[in-house]
Amino acid sequence: MVVASLLATMAFQAATTPPGGVWQDDYKVDANGNPVKEPHMAGTSIMAHIQRMANGQFMIFNPLAFLASLSIILLLLSELSIKRGRWMWTQMVLMWLAITGQAITYFIALHNISLADTWGMLKDVTDVSVVCWLCLMGVVFMGNVVRLCVVLRKWGYLKKKEKKNSDEDDEDKHEQV
């Protein structure tokens, strides 16, 4: 619950104070009173005006992290997770989504606040981080698949591998004598 609350707080804070900040003034007309080409209003995101693609990505992954975190908190408060394994699995997937959304949001924000001449280094760091993250998620995913197979075998949904045919076993025993 603590981690989910922390992720929700971080996502909320990122939404209310986006990377690059917000405009502090209204800018609709220039000094001569002529309408400007790209007006803005106080309180709107600077990144939304300057880097529309990055802002769009930010507005996808930040709410994903926020809502996944809130969903985890809701499931924990409902106490269903203590009694049922499916709820625990659902919470685990939601936590993956929350952490991944937060990580992507972080890199978008980092890119937005960095100088253009550092973007090459930032891309290298991001690439290595993403590969490491995907490897870690793959290991955790495979561990959960193995655990699921063990549970399914325990419940009788998966059968154990059968050994050699009993006739073949008898022949092997006779050959050894």
UniProtKB/TrEMBL annotation:
Where does the UniProt annotation place the signal sequence?
1-16
What keywords are annotated for this sequence in UniProt? ANK repeat, Membrane, Repeat, Signal, Transmembrane, Transmembrane helix
**Location (main, coarse):** membrane
Membrane topology classification? Multi-pass membrane protein
Q: Where in the cell is it found?
A: Membrane
> Which intervals hold domain PGG?
1-110
**Superkingdom classification of source:** Eukaryota
Transmembrane parts of this sequence: 58-77, 89-108, 128-152
GO CC annotation terms, alphabetical = membrane
Name the chain's protein: PGG domain-containing protein
* Organism whose genome encodes this protein: Eucalyptus grandis (Flooded gum)
